[in-house]
Recover the amino acids of this structure.
């Protein structure tokens, strides 16, 4: 089969090729791919991979294009395999509390469908309204509720995967537990399209919490907020959401939205508890952070909660409005949060770049956002911004952390991934990749 | 290096060899191994594996010997590598909510050490007082709290592993989240000593729940109890523990303990909720099961909870007292629980064997226990019992379930594991095994 034999599928329109060269990562992109194939069904995926394997053509699987590491960005010579058309929710089973989905389902759509049965799909990456389940699985996406509910991996039971040679396998199972064989579901989850193409998934659903309670707090500086995070950790409570936003980011939101958040403090924490004891659990947290906070507000109804969430939800859009954000995604041990933020600030000063910090404090996961001037799309990352990013990666590793907590390695962080893993483990991982993809057609140049 | 060069380590005493040939699975054992090496430190593990790889000697890693699938049972020609002496808790970090442990730490000891900091190690297999963390990780052990807290895999962050050739690697990380590289922690977890030998682990700890509330209920028959389980699932509550015990098992407990449990009903459910809303959540569950139950008792203090837990806790010991139990471990979709139990009973009648059923209803995980007469240790499994076991495996697969939810494949279920996985996935898994262990020295004859 040649690309010419798949005329209904292949899009070689210049605009389509250009839009497939980037994602939301700030990666400047490369020469456009040779074509975009919009899969209509799983058979198309099998056909494309069998053909690509036979011809040695690179294949880059792509969902919503909302990736933050360049893993789904098309490159010269490759075929981008667009799975966004495989977007059916095949089943929601309230007795089993699971859903069967195609990979192109938008994450928020699945959660909404679950909500109709009193259930939720717990992982909620910031891109939930535009990202696909397949992309979430391919990157092992995290999200705000990760503090209590974990990441995508914790909610995937089974996968249908088309391997590099076009054969299709089903791994995992539809029961909650099961230990027959190695954990291939875990292996494919987070593999960024390098081990196979995900064409179906069975995911867990959980009861929607009976109640939620929300608190926002402002602090005189970010170190004090970080101490409050430690106090919450020690309080015995398990917040569902525990987010941090620094003063610079509050200032950016004020500039864009006309608000006055930054006068309230130089750091902001958002805490949400859920379940039958949500209010009491929030009260425990409020007591724990009271000695540190300058201002605390709580809410138990949806409208008031939404007001408290505002500062967290508008953080990235505000930064996108003032420049071109390069989004980092380090994690550090939670007790090193204050040190991490202090040293990121020093890097910003020394490199003379703007770095804004917010993130999932409950997981030690910070998103330092390096905002440069708004160059035209495709412009390379300015040297100072790249130096600052490299220094942030080095800092995360020095503090015992990771260069990427939830966004992935992609094309942006390959060199640093090898450093984090170390030579022995990197070699072992590469051998696994080679086992699954001996011809090296799956997303070459990305990830490992 | 030869075994003779490690005199301080090698035990070839006949009693030691014999005790290493079995575990708690009922597997009858084979000819004794050639020696038991009691590792004193990680260097010993590296030395033994390097030597075994060079000489083509089989190595069977073993912890507490409490396995339920024969995976750690020594066989002719192999060296059993006993890790129970590597039993130090290296660190409990309440700020990070994690622990660093050697593999021989007894699971209950870790939980107790965590409790001193207001924390818990959530996975609680039935063998918690005799099993080791290393064994729990090697089998991806489950437990009673799995209904809410998941299995061992969900609580392991990083592993130190000695590979087949004696090299040591560190996989995973000490942060809660992280997506650099493939999920090798998941791959090693549940691999039953076939990919490497676990010599260290970083595990998550969680806040010990502020409160727990417990309920026991008796039902006229097990189908009615299964319907109650479905009602609980649909209630919006998330029990931490949801266990089922059938009437035959209640009768066995009565016979051994002198109690009168079975007059209360032909099926028993145990439900525990925890957290700040434990009592309210339990009330929601009590309301959901009320239409089905013949008798309900609740408790919120520890002593009363312990009384309610009695019937579940004494189930296996009672069966061990009346004969020789062959412990099965299937899981089925939760909505098929009633059908599964009904058909297991039919199998018992048709094969004329005694089968007792209890298990983790919240996960659809049933432990049908086939109790035969108490033959001498090492006697083969009677033909009728083996036929009944095979039919139970087939039933689990027919109902869309798995042959092993939490005990593992080991030497008992290899043939059935291949059937469950199917030829393609089994071949893929075997290639992964070969990649990690090209000479085939790690636990040959077990698992895949």
């Amino acid at each position: 089969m040649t690309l010419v034999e798949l005329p209904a599928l292949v899009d070689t329109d210049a605009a389509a090729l250009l839009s497939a060269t980037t994602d939301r990562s700030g990666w400047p992109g490369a020469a456009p791919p040779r074509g975009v194939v919009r899969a209509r069904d799983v058979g198309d995926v099998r056909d494309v991979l069998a053909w690509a394997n036979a011809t040695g053509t690179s294949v880059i699987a792509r969902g919503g294009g909302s990736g933050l590491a360049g893993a789904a960005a098309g490159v010269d010579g490759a075929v981008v395999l667009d799975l966004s058309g495989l977007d059916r929710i095949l089943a929601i089973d309230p007795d089993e509390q699971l859903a069967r989905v195609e990979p192109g389902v938008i994450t928020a759509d699945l959660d909404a469908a679950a909500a109709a049965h009193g259930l939720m799909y717990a992982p909620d990456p910031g891109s939930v309204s535009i990202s696909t389940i397949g992309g979430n699985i391919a990157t092992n996406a995290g999200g705000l509720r990760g503090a209590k509910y974990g990441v995508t991996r914790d909610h995937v039971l089974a996968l249908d995967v088309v391997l590099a040679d076009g054969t299709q396998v089903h791994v995992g199972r539809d029961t909650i537990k099961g230990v027959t064989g190695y954990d291939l579901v875990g292996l494919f989850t987070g593999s960024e399209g390098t081990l196979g193409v995900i064409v179906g998934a069975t995911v867990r659903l959980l009861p929607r919490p009976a109640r939620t309670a929300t608190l926002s707090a402002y602090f005189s500086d970010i170190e004090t907020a970080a101490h409050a995070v430690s106090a919450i950790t020690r309080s015995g409570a398990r917040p569902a959401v525990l987010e941090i936003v620094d003063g610079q980011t509050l200032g950016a939101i004020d500039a864009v939205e006309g608000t006055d958040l930054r006068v309230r403090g130089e750091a902001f924490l958002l805490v949400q508890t859920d379940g039958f004891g949500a209010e009491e659990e929030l009260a425990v947290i409020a007591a724990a952070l009271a000695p540190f906070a300058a201002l605390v507000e709580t809410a138990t109804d949806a409208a008031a909660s939404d007001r408290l969430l505002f500062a967290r939800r508008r953080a990235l859009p505000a930064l996108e409005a003032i420049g071109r954000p390069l989004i980092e995604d380090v994690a550090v041990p939670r007790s090193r949060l204050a040190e991490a933020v202090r040293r990121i600030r020093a890097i910003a000063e020394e490199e003379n770049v703007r770095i804004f910090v917010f993130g999932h404090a409950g997981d030690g996961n910070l998103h330092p956002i390096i905002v440069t001037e708004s160059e035209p799309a495709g412009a390379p990352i300015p040297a100072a911004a790249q130096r600052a990013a490299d220094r942030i990666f080095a800092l995360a590793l020095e503090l015992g952390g990771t260069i990427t907590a939830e966004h992935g390695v992609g094309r942006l962080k390959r060199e640093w991934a090898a450093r984090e893993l170390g030579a022995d483990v990197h070699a072992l991982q590469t051998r696994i990749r080679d086992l699954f993809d001996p011809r090296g057609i799956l997303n070459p140049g990305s990830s490992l």
Summary: The mean pLDDT of chain B is 94. The first helix of chain B runs from residue 14 to 19. Chain B has three domains: 3-82, 89-207, 212-398.
